[in-house]
Amino acid sequence: xxxxxxxxxxxxxxxxxxxxxxxxxxxxxxxxxxxxxxxxxxxxxxxxxxxxxxxxxxxxxxxxxxxxxxxxxxxxxxxxxxxxxxxxxxxxxxxxxxxxxxxxxxxxxxxxxxxxxxxxxxxxxxxxxxxxxxxxxxxxxxxxxxxxxxxxxxxxxxxx
Amino acid sequence: xxxxxxxxxxxxxxxxxxxxxxxxxxxxxxxxxxxxxxxxxxxxxxxxxxxxxxxxxxxxxxxxxxxxxxxxxxxxxxxxxxxxxxxxxxxxxxxxxxxxxxxxxxxxxxxxxxxxxxxxxxxxxxxxxxxxxxxxxxxxxxxxxxxxxxxxxxxxxxxxxxxxxxxxxxxxxxxxxxxxxxxxxxxxxxxxxxxxxxxxxxxxxxxxxxxxxxxxxxxxxxxxxxxxxxxxxxxxxxxxxxxxxxxxxxxxxxxxxxxxxxxxxxxxxxxxxxxxxxxxxxxxxxxxxxxxxxxxxxxxxxxxxxxxxxxxxxxxxxxxxxxxxxxxxxxxxxxxxxxxxxxxxxxxxxxxxxxxxxxxxxxxxxxxxxxxxxxxxxxxxxxxxxxxxxxxxxxxxxxxxxxxxxxxxxxxxxxxxxxxxxxxxxxxxxxxxxxxxxxxxxxxxxxxxxxxxxxxxxxxxxxxxxxxxxxxxxxxxxxxxxxxxxxxxxxxxxxxxxxxxx
Lengths: 160, 502
What we know:
A: 2 domains, B: mainly alpha, 2 domains, two-stranded antiparallel sheet
């Protein structure tokens, strides 16, 4: 975790520096001397910078007993277990593909295939069961959102 | 007398058939979501939120509230039957709930005690809420921008400091949320900030996308490697209604446990960041020390279940007090509800008790109704709820993902929000794995605009002097609490060093 904290700390420092500089460009005070659009983001940016530096320092400053415990834990337990990461990539890929496909096919068909793929990927259900669940869920969602809530769920092309 | 008249009026709103139906849907789905592994009240309210878009505000919030306290009922089911808490608030319930089921072979009584104490605890606290909330709202009418800013700062600081193991990570999460809340047109001058020439970002980032991504997608992805509950080994005979009540001789132990659990839960629930988990642990600890059968705690005594379940249910009601009277939510779920209120163009705070009586009293009355309805539902359909929990997790995940997808789309009928939700899902997953709590992030995002508005108004009042927060007695007292909370780890270290040396 300490190594991960160091990397996160550096990323957060870079982000907060960008955020603060950008906030400064919006102006901290206006011509009348009143607070400007950049004041609050500037304060938030500085706060984030300070916290990121503390996180970074914290990741270096650990006592030896804690460090040895952490090292043992780190080797035993990865932060991103392979199975969890694989599932994360699969779910996000399915969602992204559905967003992309929705541009051309509307929401209903991509939604159906998204559910089907997600269930099949988990390899715990049969194809028949996955198909039934995907069909039923799509139908129920369409009924709730398009019919009951009157959300204009597009069935074909969408302008984004 | 006024309060009772208002409450009666609220009952007429809550008992309208549609409101009753929404209350029941929210509470029933809450009980199921609360029992599911990983998904808690924050995720539940976030996922349910898109369904409230077409409703009037009162019905929408009634449904979300039902989901919130329904979760507290559900969390105990798996804690008792499998020793696996549905959410963190039910962890302490496993200590006696699981042994009562397995060692004493009384699953029905354990579940019944849990539902009964949740119901009594919840109802006692709704009564407290009914009389305390309007009084608090009247008192806070005198608050100005500095007091509100200080209150929000206190809420954010306490939630950040108390959720998660490392307070710095909590503060970073809150600061990131505030940073994201700065996106969009500035409140005063209209300057576009961090919009990257995206039209969709001019109005800022919709908190619903963040809540669904951080609480919904991230939780599902994180829990996808877990297996479902499978067969729980419970038969219809085990959870027959006659077997679900505690024995007569157990009531003398149960009554004080439920009473103390309710009080602890209500007042702990009112504190930002403390919440139902801390309340149930505190209540368990206190009852273990003070109960005449304290030594038997952990072996399956019903009061061990009662004190935790009454406390966590009471905490969920207590958490509504600061959210509705001050406009300062103290947890992820109440932040989602406050965001929903703002989405319905209602500003939570003391004025709501004067300007939106329909809503406030309708909601209060619906809590009584909903609490009773969910109690009845749980007692009568326990076996079916167990069956629902046996649905394979892969199917549930896919279905919930589909709801999140369409929910995000329905915000503005745009795929941009779906993309934004996916982005927050990835961010939430990374945060979860790196042990950054998500609640401070969502809380900051919801409060961000009000936080900025009150800060800027205060600075205008004081000619840009930050001393205004320390010159006024109420805001100075709140700021003192903020400073103590921030310096707590250093103070604790100092105290320990002094103790060691002495």
